[in-house]
Amino acid sequence: MKPLVLIVDDDSQMASLLKTMLELSDYPYIRAANAKEALSLFLSHQPQIVLLDLGLPDMDGVDVIKKIREFSRTPILVLSARNEDSDKIVALDAGADDYLSKPFSVDELSARLRVICRRIEYTQAPQISPVFKNGDLRIHFDEQSVYLKDEKLHLTPIEYRILSLLAKNSGKLLTRTYITKEVWGSSWDSDLSSLRVYMTSLRKKLHHQYIETSFGVGYQMIKADSDQENEE
């Protein structure tokens, strides 16, 4: 059974397009035309994915993200006509998991949904090693939290996904194409450009340690010492 999707969009034509796409891919869905209805449906139906437009008639979509993040980590994929980098950063920092600018292709949206579904399946599966340790770096996969020298780092959802992917493949060089496909579900030029931005921010938060850049190829997690091990 595929996850229940909550569509939050006041544009009836866009909502109709999303409904058709979800029906063709066998996703169950519910739809809200404003923020108040969206929050009510979220609490009553507990959807596993939210497709959220930011331009709602009664509340800005960023505020909806913040309200949901007060009590839930349900994946939120923003679908918005706002295409400035600043708009994307605000939404992602508020807690959105991904961002697609309108107009977008149905194929790309489908790919992003598949990535979210794989992540849901992974988080629901039993974890053998819930904590990754590498020197002073710790990643608690069950809590989706990261610590450096016992200080909790504040990462965006995409920064966390990139770091987790590198950690689970520690010591391996991951190509930019592989990373973008795992994180965004595609390797469009915009995704490759976004990856560079996120990597710059992530490496800064890690004090430029742990992640090595192979220019023109990709990135890898470097082991801080030979005693690095995962806790059971």
From TrEMBL:
Protein name: DNA-binding response regulator
DNA-binding feature ranges: 129-223
Sites of 4-aspartylphosphate modification: D53
InterPro entries in alphabetical order: CheY-like_superfamily, OmpR/PhoB-type_DNA-bd, Sig_transdc_resp-reg_receiver, WalR-like, WH-like_DNA-bd_sf
Classification via PANTHER family: KDP OPERON TRANSCRIPTIONAL REGULATORY PROTEIN KDPE, REGULATOR OF RPOS
Entry-linked Pfam families: Response_reg (PF00072), Trans_reg_C (PF00486)
Chain ranges of the Response regulatory domain: 4-117
Coiled coil: none
GO BP term, pick one: regulation of DNA-templated transcription
Molecular function terms, GO-annotated: phosphorelay response regulator activity; transcription cis-regulatory region binding
Assigned keywords, A-Z: DNA-binding, Phosphoprotein, Transcription, Transcription regulation
Gene Ontology CC, one term: protein-DNA complex
Annotated signal peptide: none
Species per Swiss-Prot/TrEMBL record: Ileibacterium valens
PROSITE patterns: OMPR_PHOB, RESPONSE_REGULATORY
Domain OmpR/PhoB-type span(s) in chain numbering: 129-223
